[in-house]
Structure formats: structure tokens, C-alpha cells
Amino acid sequence: MVSPPHAHDVDLEEALAFLNTLEYEHGQPQDAFATSMQATAWLAERGLVHDDAVSTMVTSQAVLRRVRRLRGALRELAEASHDGRMPDAGALAEVNRVLRARGTLELVPIGDGLRLDHRHGRDPIGEALARLAEPIVREIGEARTGRLRPCANDACRWLFFDASRQGRRRWCDMTSCGNRAKAARHRARVRVGSAS
Hints:
alpha+beta; 7 helices
């Protein structure tokens, strides 16, 4: 009997959530992946690696380094693309290396037809990282990079996709970073007005 399909596809929102696991609080980095256990748990919670594979990886510092290295490389590519500059060559090489670990697609018989499924290789972390990278590199590679950008709040710097009609959104979230920026501009105008 053929096992039921299990997709590990990642959408852009999930890929951005991965990049934003390193966030800034008052300008100071806060890493959601302080340990390899946190990194592998994050991947498992999203169905990117199977639970049976996680138990062998949770204490591996090499896994943590790989996850952080890809996250940093993807962020460099996204920011370079947004800034209109060439990315760091090492970041580009890292992302391309990770993309090559993508699982193998294959057709499998089911009932009286065929179904598209996949076969895992020997590197479940590499496959998970490749799937996380894919939506980001598609955005960058399809020349819609102006919509993938960091928050204009220097204390935040979350990466987000601007789906607004005009494509001019500057903040990751209007209710937090956007309102803070508006309030700061208002306070500055009041100070200038009262100083006159």
C-alpha cells in the first residue's frame, strides 16, 4: 500500500517567518534559535522534518549553524535585492548550495492512476532548508524584489512582502512600527512648533 501524500511545501509567509526568527528588540538581536533543539522543533512544528528525524538532530550544533547560516544568507540576498546591490558572494553560494538539497519528485501509483509525491534523501535538514529558501529565491529571481523588503523601523528590520496596491508600504505592521513612526514624526513637529 502506498502511503498518503505528505507535502512539505512552504509558502512565502512561512519563509519570511523563518527569516524573522532573528528579530530586533530595541535594536538588539533576539534569536528564536538559541539552541539546536529550538531550531529543529521549529522545523518539526511546521512539518518540514519528520518527528523521527528530529530526535537524532536536536543536540547537534552543526544543525544550528546550518539553520542560522541559511537564514543570514537569505536575509543578505533579500536586502541586497531591495537595495539594488549585488549580494555577498558567500551568501549567494550558501543559498545555491542549500537549494541543491531539495527532495526528489516522483510519480507513484495509487489505485488506477498516479500521484505526484516525493522521496527523501539522507539529509532531512538540508531538504527542509531548501524548501524554506525556495519561496524567497523565487521572489528575488522573478524580479518582484521591490515588494520584499525590510521594515523601515531600524529597531525592527523584519522582512515582509508588500502586497499593498501601490507597493509603498514601509513597515512590517502598521499597528506597531507604522504607528510608532507616525507618533515620532508628530512629536518632532510639535517640538519644532513649540520651539518657534
